[in-house]
Amino acid sequence: MPRALRRQISERLGATAADTFEVEGFSGSPTPAKICEIDRPDLKFQPYMPRYPERVRDFNGDLFAAIRPRTCLSTTRSRASTSWRSS
After folding, report:
1. Among 34, 33, 8, which residue's Cα sits nearest to residue 20?
2. At 53, is the secondary structure helix, strand, or coil?
3. Which domain holds residue 29?
């Protein structure tokens, strides 16, 4: 890490030279992936589960086949369902 960046971080955190030290690697760990292996589910993101409208599921996930016979109006995430309008 560049010296100027270390100094800026230390100043913003209110740390003195006695409070800081350098380590090799990412946070002193030779393998940063080890951080993800800790048993703390409260610190991990919930798995992403995409929601597909029922009409798209009816066409085995083929969005273009689902909207070909109809017009699909996309809605915001706050709405519970997708609006469909016949063309």
Report:
1. 8
2. coil
3. 3-40
Contacts of 61 (CB under 8 A, 6+ apart): 52
Domain annotation covers residue 48: no
DSSP assignment of 13-77 equals HT--GGG----SSBTTBS-GGGGGGSS-GGGSPPPP-----HHHHHTTT-HHHHHSSEEEEP--T
* C-alpha distances in Å from residue 11, one per residue of 18, 19, 47, 77: 13, 11, 37, 41
Q: pLDDT tens, 38-47? A: 788 888 888 8
For 18-39, what is each residue's pLDDT tens digit? 888 887 766 666 676 777 777 8
Q: Are residues 36 and 58 in the same domain?
A: no
Asked if residue 47 is part of any domain, the answer here is: no
Provide the domain count of the chain.
Answer: 2
